[in-house]
User: What shape does this take?
Amino acid sequence: DAKTTQPPSMDCAEGRAANLPCNHSTISGNEYVYWYRQIHSQGPQYIIHGLKNNETNEMASLIITEDRKSSTLILPHATLRDTAVYYCIVRVMEYGNKLVFGAGTILRVKS
Amino acid sequence: SAVISQKPSRDICQRGTSLTIQCQVDSQVTMMFWYRQQPGQSLTLIATANQGSEATYESGFVIDKFPISRPNLTFSTLTVSNMSPEDSSIYLCSVDSGGMNTEAFFGQGTRLTVV
Assistant: This one.
């Protein structure tokens, strides 16, 4: 089973920051948080991952709380092309480091 | 990053037949996985394709229904056997190094419709 909880859907205005929350209260100390997204009819696309420090790349920023029980993915300037299902995944050692997908959050970016 | 090619991209098949899906990677990879995504659902892991040995299947998936081959470090196949309409799904190949701190990459998927 997935170790994460995400809201089923969110809306965001085009050009605004999209902040997608994720709860992972049972995360262990050496387990990473990964974010992927899936645009309709395509394979999942890697966005970012982190352990405990905040991370930023060309696509997004990842903010992980100090207790590591939750995180937020930030798309700084959402565009219509960012409309997708966003998956927050904890990579679990007991699962052999496999990626176990939850239901994800449907992000709708609106003009 | 790895470039993954899946074939076919889509197919419509008759019930009772089998379809073999191919996954080709442009570099050698340690781990290859097969996922299923049923209509409107999230991804479910079918199995880990092990090079040179039998695949490791997740609960609810069996080798007779989903035989998998992995002859080398860049190629794998998944066969969906004796298909029924319930097998209509997107089947996705994924690759990664298996480490906790490395990202996995996904193919574009094979959209299978069984009629």
About this structure: Chain B has a mean pLDDT of 94.
